[in-house]
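Minutes, project huddle
Topic: does the predicted pose make sense with iron/sulfur cluster bound?
PN asked that the exact inputs be recorded in the minutes so nobody has to dig through chat later. Recorded below.
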Amino acid sequence: MKILLVYPKMPSSFWTMNHTLKILGKAAWYPPLGLLTVASMLPKTWHTRLIDLNVQPLSDQDIGWADQIFISAMNVQEASARSIIRQCSDLGKPVVAGGSLFTLQSEHFPGVDHFILNEAEITLPPYLSDLEQGSPGKFYRSNDFAHVSETPLPRWDLIALDHYQYGIIQYSRGCPYHCDFCDVPTLYGNRPRMKSPEQIIAELDVFRSNSTVPSILFADDNLIGNRKVLKQDLLPALIKWRRQHVPIFSFSTQVSINLVDDVEMMDLMLEAGFRHLFIGIETDNEDTLKLTGKSQNMRRNILDSISILHRKGFIVVGGYIVGFDTDTLETFHTQADLIQNSGIMLATLNMLKAPPGTPLFERMQSEGRLIPGFSFHEAESNITLNMPSKLFYQAFQQTIQKVYSPEYSFERAKQWLAEFNHLPAVETDIPALNTLEYIPVLGRAIYFIGMKWSGRRYFWRLLWWTVRHRPRLLDWALVSTIFMYQLENLLNEYSQLLEEKIAELPDQKAPPVSTPQSRTREQADISSPYIQNE
Ligand code: SF4
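Predicted holo structure (tokens), as shared on screen:
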């Protein structure tokens, strides 16, 4: 049997960081971990190939080679997934589909021949067994959750790691929290399930031996979902392994902001090599956090929490949301201030969406507020908001102008560089990158950002500011300029989409959003102790 695994194209978004790739000389940020794991569960005698559309095109010849085409996709990949399904249908090849897009919306994909839904560790074996008997069914579902401690090592041999900027592994699935807009609890449950340290070390050894990636993403829903096991089990194993091998890569992951309440956990994570953290901050409005069930973010000063993480030695990427029922047009002002005063260089402001399978989706459906025929993308919501749509979209457009434009991301970069502790208190530091390898990246950054980009003055200003104030962070300043460039390109794309959306909507009588009065860094009482120490 010949199986072609196909990973659909990711649209341009904050998450794909696509504008940075030409500077980094890479095709995509992360390999398709789900499909590589599925590949490892197929019979060893089968022939398997994998095509990631983010790296290479899919030809009719590729499809013609295979007996079946396996696709895995998330919501945002819907357009590309549909196009692949059509192409396979035209060529008469059966499509086998899995992943969160199909698990939550299988009824919308009549062109798929077989659905391997929920977790493939459970639903793929019965499909393979039925296929062997010659009578494969249409749907394979399960309400059970897999023991990821039995999940095999992904088939890394199916891809060229050099195409990707980061490596990727997954330690746990599931999250103990109940944010009502999040599909993780529905898809993976509230009890995190973990791989063994031995599994993780085996996966890390693959990257250590076969790649020069500067960072590896732990693609967990919330790494600190089970603190006890993480502290007793994985982190000590990672620390031991890092001391033994001194790998060149750091780790990135997603955590909830209450990490900051656990000093021991932060210290262990730093020692283990974690540096980049994505945190869903969403808002600092307590009523909103209560409404959405995001209790772990409540009763804290968000700016202080972020500052603690920066001073500890973490680099924080923050996600924020507007469009909750408690929000008003004034919320756009407070969100812009919250982001700007955080010193989070890479911040994403999203419209609230209700993914299928979430409590929010159920509520919006019961209130008749779901927009039918919606396809997920960044510049539109699938719910009827509790404020006039045109004003909402106009205010959103004005706010992302503030968050993503280089004028503002430059200021955040300075704030972050001023307080970032680049020498965290660890026994085993991460070796400096091989500068020679990064000379082409530097050359491309100077050409594309420092010379061709309309915001090039911010490139030079940030480098100059860093030379004067924190010269040892010049490499981080360069990375910040690459992110500034990404954000501005994204702003241009989103602005165009938003303008089209706004033009479709009927005029509203209320006045447009005025320019907010921002709180300054001083008013937010965030000082920068490291800046004097250089
Ligand atoms: S903490 Fe994150 S992963 Fe967990 S439910 Fe909330 S949004 Fe989802």
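Observations noted during the meeting:
- Residues 321-423+430-534 form one domain.
- Residues 175, 177, 179, 182, 184-185, 221-222, 256, 280 surround iron/sulfur cluster (CB under 6 Å).
No decisions taken; revisit at the next huddle.
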